[in-house]
């Protein structure tokens, strides 16, 4: 991000969190979102969540292609640039969330919004939503899901580690429930942004 100043009226920073406690390890960290960061692109967003590159790029591309209504704009190229400033864990989920907010900011038509949610299972099978980098390293399995906002349909999943079918279903259900908090944050962030315009 080139020399962005806080005095620029176009910069909006929004914060969100899930304050409800559903048990240890089952809450999301704080969100922060800034839009219109860059002057030249049609849309830009920075999405922070909490304090293998080509594979991640492919997963993000496939998720975006699943929801973007490309037929409305034939022969149009959409480029999404994601710059990782820090990795506090759940990086792929954070990148998916940033990509969605950038597409919204650019006004790209989509079938639905999408979000990423990462789950981790520790050695005794305890599920953790939105794990930190340390928790991911110590986890027995890490699962990331991309879900749409309309039907909570699974758009993409990637896994690392060992887990049972029952644990996979448990993680997916937890990710679907957590996605509602992310989508609520999107709505609140956009409402605050456009109510000030």
Give your account of this protein's structure:
By secondary structure, this protein is an alpha+beta fold. The protein has a single domain (32-195), classed as GHMP Kinase, N-terminal domain (Ribosomal Protein S5, domain 2, 2-Layer Sandwich), CATH 3.30.230. The chain has helices spanning 53-67, 91-106, 133-138, 165-195; strands at residues 12-16, 31-35, 45-49, 114-121, 127-129, 141-148, 154-161. The strands form two sheets. Strands 5-4-6-7 form a four-stranded antiparallel sheet, sandwiched between helices. It has a three-stranded antiparallel sheet with strand order 1-2-3. Helix 1 (53-67) packs across helix 2. The model is unreliable at 1-22 (pLDDT under 50). Keywords: Exosome, Nucleus, rRNA processing. Residues 54-109, 113-177 form the Exoribonuclease phosphorolytic domain. This is Exosome component 5.
Write the layout of secondary structure elements.
Blueprint (H helix, E strand, L loop, with lengths): L11 E5 L14 E5 L9 E5 L3 H15 L23 H16 L7 E8 L5 E3 L3 H6 L2 E8 L5 E8 L3 H31 L2
Antiparallel strand pairs: 1-2, 2-3, 4-5, 4-6, 6-7
Helix pairs in contact: 1-2
């Amino acid at each position: 991000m080139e020399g962005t100043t806080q005095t620029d009226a176009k910069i909006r920073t929004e914060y969100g969190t899930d304050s409800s406690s559903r048990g240890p390890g089952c809450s999301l960290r704080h969100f922060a979102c800034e839009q219109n960061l860059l002057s030249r692109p049609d849309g830009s967003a920075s999405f922070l969540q909490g304090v293998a590159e080509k594979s991640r790029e492919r997963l993000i591309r496939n998720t975006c292609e699943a929801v973007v209504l490309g037929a409305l704009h034939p022969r149009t190229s959409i480029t999404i640039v994601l710059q990782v400033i820090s990795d506090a864990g759940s990086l792929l989920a954070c990148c998916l969330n940033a990509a969605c907010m950038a597409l919204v900011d650019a006004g790209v038509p989509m079938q639905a919004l999408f979000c990423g949610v990462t789950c981790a299972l520790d050695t005794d099978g305890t599920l953790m939503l939105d794990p930190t980098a340390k928790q991911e390293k110590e986890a027995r399995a890490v699962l990331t899901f991309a879900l749409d906002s309309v039907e909570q349909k699974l758009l993409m999943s990637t896994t690392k580690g060992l887990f049972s079918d029952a644990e996979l279903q448990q993680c997916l259900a937890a990710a679907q429930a957590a996605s509602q908090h992310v989508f609520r944050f999107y709505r609140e962030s956009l409402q605050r942004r456009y109510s000030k315009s």
